[in-house]
Every structure is written in C-alpha cells, then in structure tokens.
Amino acid sequence: MWRKLLLLGMAFLLLGAVLHAKVTLLYMTAGDINMLALAQNVIGPMFSERYPEVDLRTIHTGPGDAGSRLIFEKLRAEKAAGKETWDVDVAMVHQIFLSWVKDEYGDLNELLLQYAQDLETWKYVTSPHAKYALGVPVQGYVMPMFHSQTAIAYNPKYVPEPPRSFDELVEWVKAHPGKFGYNGIKGGMSGVSFVNAWVYWKTGKYEKYAITGPFEEEEVANWEPVFKELKEFNKYVTITAGNVGTLDALNRGEIWMGPVWVDMFYTFMLTGKMDPNMRLALPAPGMPGQPMYFVIPAKARNVEWAKKFVEFVTSPEIQGKVIVEMYNWYPGIDGTYVKDYVSPEAYERLYRDITPKELQEKGLAFPLSPYFKAVLESYEKWVIGG
C-alpha cells in the first residue's frame, strides 16, 4: 500500500513540476561584450521579474560581422537539417545579417519570421532602418533595439559655431589646419562613417548606394575625383589612431573637431574621460549610423514569448531607462516616446545637440555591401596610394 502511495505522491510531484516548469527562451546576441552584460545583468532579470515563468538564456557570439555570421550559420544549419523547431528563439544581429539571408535564399521568410508588425511597440518605430537594411527590404522582419550614430564632436571653446554642412566643414578645415581629426579607414568605424558620408555628399547618390541599388561598376569608376578631393582635404587634417584616438585627441585639445560614435562620446564624458563642455553636430546631408536588430527565426520554438521579449525591450519604458539612461544609445523607437521614462538630464544630454527629428532626417545608413567594399578600396587606391 505504501508503495502505491509513494508512486502516487511522486506522480503528483512530477505533475506539479511540469505545470510549474519555466519556459526557457534562448537568446543569441552578436555585438561587443556589453551586449552579453546587457542581456545577463539587465534586461534578462528585468524580463524575468515581469514574467517569472520565463527563463532567458543568453549566448554571446562575439563582436562585429563575425558575431552575426555565427548566428546566420546556426540558423542555416537548422534549416538544412530539416528540424521541426529550431533552438534559437530570438537573436540580435547587425544589418549585414539580412544581406546574407537575402543573398543565400532570395527570401527572408526562409530563415526569419515576419513578426514586428504584430507587436504593440511597432507603432513607435519611425526609423528608415526598420524598412531597409543595406538595401534589403526588411520591414516586419526586424525590430531595432538601439541605434548607434556617428556625429561630429567639437570643442565650443574653439568652435563657437560648428559647420552645419559638409560644404561649411571643408571651408572650416582649410581655415584651421590640423584641428579636424579622424582615423581615415583604420582603427574604427567613426572614420569609415565619415568617408562614406563624404561619398554621399559628393555624389548625391545616397538612395542608390544605400537603399535601392543596384551596384554598378561604372559608379565606382566615376569616384576618382571624389577621392582626390578627399585626399586634398586630408592635407589639412590630423589622422588619429581610431575611434578612441579621436576622442582622446579631442579631449587633450590636440584637435578641436572630429567624427565620433555618440554613445562612446557620452560614455567617455560620464566616466570623466571627456571634457563635459564638448558638443555634437550632425552636418547635412548627414552621416551613417547603424542599428542592431531583434529577429525571430522562422521556426523558433517559443514564438509568442519571443515576441513578448522583443516587445518588452522596445517598450518606451525600457528604451528610456536602459537604452538611453544606462547605455547612451539612441533608442530603437522614436525618441519622442521615451521622454517620460528617462531622467531629464539623460534625455537632455542625448538630444541636446541632435534632436529626434534631425536624427530621423540625417541619420543615414551605411552603403550596400558591394558599395561599402568599393568605398574602402577606393580610399586605399586614391587617398592612401594615389
């Protein structure tokens, strides 16, 4: 009799365990190590506090394109294996990821779910990057988590009226030789962003190069004068040692102006590495930045929970308290919606010099992959080697 009672008791315990078992949500993220810390230490615990029945497990794949490539390879392998459901529930990827999917399959549906327009937070998204990623139509397949933007940092002590356009910038640099600094195309993407912005400005073909395409070799062949002018411009500038090198030179007063990543600029400022009086400007026609995207695999095991997770992180509250306040990124949603959820100091800091409207108008995308590669090769050929 006691055996039957024991077995019955064990059955009830097992049933209770099943009924109270947590949902495991597998989240894969590319990006620097701060992306792992963000998931494990901040948004993961916050999400689990809101939804105790969910356990967020994070896998970090590493920085840059290589990190996103590992996620792409994982999903491609699961598709090739013909699995009923795939291991990854939600992932954080760079723009180039969407190009790989498009190039490999022709249709994003083969690897990804078109889910974003189902979210309550979709109505807050106004960024053009939610529609196109390096020329690939991505609307509905991606949800921007945050936006990293480049801008021109300047010292108002020496630059009371910063250039508001690239035309004005060229004139200023000639009048103040050595006081504008950037890293060319070595050591960081702030300089690469500046070079691409130069090409957009000189050619007037941003839409073709970054949004619509197609890639045409004759376009590249016509760039020689564009880069010869940039080589002439470089005679009046200081070439810095990368993203950090530009920030350090600016803080030391060696240069008075230079392109920087906005989040790095404010992080330096908040940690005492940058003069708090420094300011930012985004000259017309604009400069490239890049978002990172939430995507949900086509055969994710926990689709509805994955949607809830993305919806949670892209809510005005989390965008304000975490993305803006803690990390100094521009939010993935329209900045006007986060104002009530961020301290006045943090909001004023981030939008003091570049308003949400200005960011929407002049926050450009990097070019399509073949044009991006051609820009770097052209710089090597006509600016460094020419």
Description:
- The protein has 386 residues and is an alpha/beta fold.
- The protein folds into 2 domains: 2-147 and 290-356, 3-Layer(aba) Sandwich (D-Maltodextrin-Binding Protein, domain 2); 148-289 and 365-384, Periplasmic binding protein-like II (D-Maltodextrin-Binding Protein, domain 2, 3-Layer(aba) Sandwich), CATH 3.40.190.10.
- It is built from 16 helices and 13 strands.
- It has helices spanning 2-19, 33-50, 64-80, 95-105, 166-175, 189-203, 206-212, 217-221, 224-234, 242-252, 262-270, 303-313, 316-324, 344-351, 356-362, 369-384; strands at 23-30, 54-62, 90-93, 132-133, 136-137, 143-154, 181-182, 238-239, 257-261, 279-281, 287-295, 330-331, 363-364.
- Strands 1, 2, 3, 6, 9, 10, 11, 12 and 13 form a 9-stranded mixed sheet that branches. It has a two-stranded antiparallel ribbon with strand order 4-5. Strands 7-8 form a two-stranded parallel ribbon.
- Strand 1 (23-30), helix 2 (33-50) and strand 2 form a beta-alpha-beta unit.
- Helix 3 (64-80) runs parallel beside helix 4 (95-105) and helix 6 crosses helix 16 (369-384).
- It is globular and about 65 Å long.
- Mean pLDDT is 92; it is low at 5-20.
